Amino acid sequence: MSLALSVLDLAPIAPGQSAGDSIAASVALAQAAEEHGYRRVWYAEHHNMPTIASSAPAVLIAHVGANTSTIRLGAGGVMLPNHSPLTIAEQFGTLEAMYPGRIDLGLGRAPGSDEATTYALRRDPSQSAQFPEDVLELQAYLAGTSRVPGVQATPGGGSAVPLYVLGSSTFGAHLAARFGLPYAFASHFAPQQLRAAVVSYRNEFQPSDQLAEPHVIAGVNVVAADTTTEARESFAQVQRRFATSLFGRGRTFTEAEVDILMETAAGQHVQQMQHYSAVGTPSEVREYLQDFAREAGADELIVAHQALSTPARLRSVQLTAEAFEGATV
Questions:
Q1: What are the distances in angstroms from CA 283 to CA 2, 29, 135?
Q2: Which residues, other chains included, contact 141 with Cβ-Cβ below 8 Å and sequence gap of 6+?
Q3: I need a surface site. Which of 93, 140, 167, 249 has the fewest CB within 10 A?
């Protein structure tokens, strides 16, 4: 069995850190991923989240690209209903012109935040219904065969930046299969429909100019550390912080209050969301990821290294790659 490992950088803003600190950590993470043989690093578009610094993936990619040399960089993903296809074609066409052969463009149809933020971003929530048509319009701009007479993407036209469809349900699987695009499933936070989505995608896949055979990327959380105890303690802190940010609505919790929260339905929900998580020593992480890849039917794993501190995330990047002798299972 052979598959690549990639990195999903969630660009966390840790307690006591600034957005600038988070961006510097993202540069260090990409440099470590490049050094240790990972295939790509992706950044997801999120909005109105005080603990995440990836609201502008194209800008972040441009900065990281200037501080790396070979690793692929991309969005995992751009929430396309928040933007016009022409704007995204120009942004990622610019990135491709800056870093030829290194840019990916993953596309999702979710808003990337809550209802109020959705209104602030796109004003019309029904825009997500246009997602399939927007994908085709964007693809045409990047191919230099615009579907809008008289309009071309510059930069972008003819760049052929590869597209990926992201999803957490079977909708994206059907769309990726119909358009002949790679499919990335967000199993690192939405595990429920992973198997059904992958089966649908593989069964329905139609070859395209971009892709001859189906290609599945599955998301998985990882905390690799020198000891099992260290890894488990680190992951427990990640889950506690996730629970308070998801359900705390801006409140500050004492440790005792977080203990109580983690015993409630909210805490159980967080654990269910992060069901697919490899936590432990390098050998334990390797065994988990190999089993997960077989279960998911994945050609590639995109790993969210989930430790709270930057040094712990960098150590997790290193240990995981070393367990696979250079990030290839």
A1: 17, 22, 40
A2: 85, 86, 89, 93, 151, 152, 153, 156, 157
A3: 249
Angle among Cα 236, 237, 242 to the nearest 5 degrees reads 100
Pairing of strands 163-167, 277-280: unpaired
Question: How far apart are alpha carbons 310 and 29 in whole angstroms?
Answer: 8
Q: For residue 134, what is the enclosing H or E element? A: helix 131-143
Is the distance from CB of 69 to CB of 28 less than 8 angstroms?
Answer: no
Q: How far apart are CA 161 and CA 100, in angstroms?
A: 9
> From start to end of 19-101, where are the E strands?
40-43, 72-79
Contacts 24+ apart (CB under 8 A), 232-238: 232/279, 232/280, 234/306, 234/307, 234/308, 234/312, 235/277, 235/279, 235/306, 235/307, 237/308, 238/306, 238/307, 238/308
pLDDT of the residue at 185: 98
pLDDT at residue 328 is higher than 70: no
DSSP state of 161: P
pLDDT at position 112 is: 59
The rounded distance, in Å, linking the Cα atoms of 275 and 291 is: 14
pLDDT in tens, 277-312: 999 999 999 999 999 999 999 999 999 999 999 999
**pTM to 2 decimal places:** 0.94
Q: How confident is the model at residue 329 (pLDDT cuts 50, 70, 90)?
A: very low
- Residue bearing tokens 């969301």: 273
Per-residue H/E/C for 251-277: CCCCHHHHHHHHHCHHHHHHHHHCCCE
85 by DSSP, 3-state: which?
A: helix
> Are 95 and 103 spatial neighbours (Cβ–Cβ below 8 Å)?
yes
The set of residues, in sequence order, having a beta carbon less than 8 Å from that of 154 and lying 6+ positions away, is 90, 93
Please give the Cα distance from 244 to 258 (Å, whole number): 7
Other Cβ atoms within 10 Å of 154 Cβ, number: 13
